[in-house]
């Protein structure tokens, strides 16, 4: 799942070498902290948060197979 977040984020930004994903696992949920270059923050969030919402939707759909709740925090 971490790789999915990383691949999607790298495809969206101008500086893919600065994409970092940190996984924090809980019992029933997983939090992914996504950090990108400051100038790429707008590209990850998108207009009115549409890109961030789409990213969260895709990752949540992929997490259904593992029966876990996934959250993405963009920092």
From TrEMBL:
Pfam families: KH_KhpA-B. GO terms for cellular component: cytoplasm. SUPFAM superfamilies: Prokaryotic type KH domain (KH-domain type II) (SSF54814). PROSITE patterns: KH_TYPE_1 (PS50084). GO terms for molecular function: RNA binding. The keyword tRNA processing does not apply. Its main location: cytoplasm. It is found in: Cytoplasm. Keywords: Cell shape, Cell wall biogenesis/degradation, Chaperone, Cytoplasm, RNA-binding. GO terms for biological process: cell wall organization; peptidoglycan biosynthetic process; regulation of cell shape. HAMAP family: KhpA. Forms a complex with KhpB. A probable RNA chaperone. Forms a complex with KhpB which binds to cellular RNA and controls its expression. Plays a role in peptidoglycan (PG) homeostasis and cell length regulation. Belongs to the KhpA RNA-binding protein family. This is RNA-binding protein KhpA.
């Amino acid at each position: 799942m971490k790789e999915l977040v990383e691949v999607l984020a790298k495809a969206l930004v101008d500086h893919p070498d600065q994409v970092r994903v940190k996984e924090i696992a809980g019992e029933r949920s997983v939090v992914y902290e996504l950090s990108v270059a400051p100038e790429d923050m707008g590209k990850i969030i998108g207009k009115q948060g549409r890109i961030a919402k789409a990213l969260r939707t895709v990752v949540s759909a992929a997490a259904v197979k593992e029966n876990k709740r996934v959250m993405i925090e963009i920092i």
